[in-house]
Hints:
Layout: H1 2-16, E1 34-38, E2 44-48, E3 65-69, E4 74-78, E5 91-95, E6 100-104, E7 115-119, E8 122-126, E9 139-144, E10 149-155, E11 165-169, E12 173-177, E13 191-195, E14 200-203, E15 215-220, E16 225-231, E17 242-249, E18 255-261, E19 276-279, E20 282-285
Amino acid sequence: xxxxxxxxxxxxxxxxxxxxxxxxxxxxxxxxxxxxxxxxxxxxxxxxxxxxxxxxxxxxxxxxxxxxxxxxxxxxxxxxxxxxxxxxxxxxxxxxxxxxxxxxxxxxxxxxxxxxxxxxxxxxxxxxxxxxxxxxxxxxxxxxxxxxxxxxxxxxxxxxxxxxxxxxxxxxxxxxxxxxxxxxxxxxxxxxxxxxxxxxxxxxxxxxxxxxxxxxxxxxxxxxxxxxxxxxxxxxxxxxxxxxxxxxxxxxxxxxxxxxxxxxxxxxxxxxxxxxxxxxxxxxxxxxxxxxxx
Length: 294
């Protein structure tokens, strides 16, 4: 029962994080609704389930970000853009138990896409898009769970990118993989690690391909070694690859990272604008897009 409750909550978070047409086809692959999990035995597995229709948000939005907060058992929904591609700064709390929405503190600026991640008691929105899809501004937004306020906390170093794959290690460091310097035309293979406490950035071993709109999740092996898995994306076409990064933090605070192709992509075609999540030692990837459909 606990597992099923988590899957239901995680499913809603993933649906909210999917872009175009996600309102009508939230989780579709190979013409069947299912969740693809990647285990650390490097094996793709499938868990079947059923979907329940919940109360919709007050307006149709594309490219929203959302994250489940364990302490309050609620989901924070941030930003998005309407059908006229006007970014919104509005945010909402969704209560799964009551199936209801309430207003949350607004973003300082209208934003859509990017990735919302948690480090300790703060949420960070990284790689989001503002008024220009062709000229990323690199703004990083921070939301305090304690003070219930958003602020612009930092700016990504050049080249500024949007729609990178983003994950967190050690509940303290944020890893960004790829992203675009402008629309879909300028994907990058840059891998960076960001410490939001010191506001310092480091550049790590490049990703094997230039990519944007991929999705990454991380898993702790020991206090100093971590696995990062990055899935799909866009690189002059939809990517049908999964890469594993082995990251080690050394005693002198240097960081090493190596990439290998997992060679077990579960789909017959590439996908982009990938969503995902994590549960225990399982990493989930999807929904995602192919062309103009989910």
